[in-house]
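re the bet — no i am not wrong, look at it urself. input seq straight from the record:
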Amino acid sequence: MAPPSASEILNATERLKNNKSAGEDGLLPEVYKASPRVVAQQLETLFSLIWEKKTFPSDWKMSVITPVFKKGDKYDSRNYRRISLMYLATKVFAMIMLNRFEEDDIDALAADLATAQAMLNEIAHFSQLLGMKINTAKTKVMDLNIQSDYQLVLYGQELEKVDGFTYLGSVIDPHRGCDVDVQNRINKAQAFFSQLRRHL
């Protein structure tokens, strides 16, 4: 997985909400939005360094948690919503990573199993930094033309090997090429038109 790009940083910066409280760095979202391209260039360099070193600046790991009253009894802590005021750069980084992970399906392609394991470790590491954990039950391994008993491991668990899987609606099958995917799409189209006929 590559470090955050300038375009991802620009996109995250645009999505920052205005009129929000500043974090420990004292910067408001409007500051980033005033010169987004300059900010993106600086953050791209910083994020690449973080990616390379695989660690956040120590200040970024801190945030101010502020209780905001919702309604009801002010003396009941359940009636408060907690908001976390963090460094603005941390928020941008987190937004980018969450956007990548929220796509749910992440594919990691590697030329060999050792590289695949290193990539998996990197994804797991950055997930952990953001307070997230990869679901090992949903993480599958498919290898092509590799004669090895080597198992990919995540959080100390060996990952399940599969002969094929569905990724973003497409059936990936290394043995039967695109035939399975084409047949799958034909079946879906037939089912759709069958339902459509019932409503006409």
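see?? The chain has a mean pLDDT of 81. told u. also The chain has three domains: 1-102, 104-162, 165-199. so pay up
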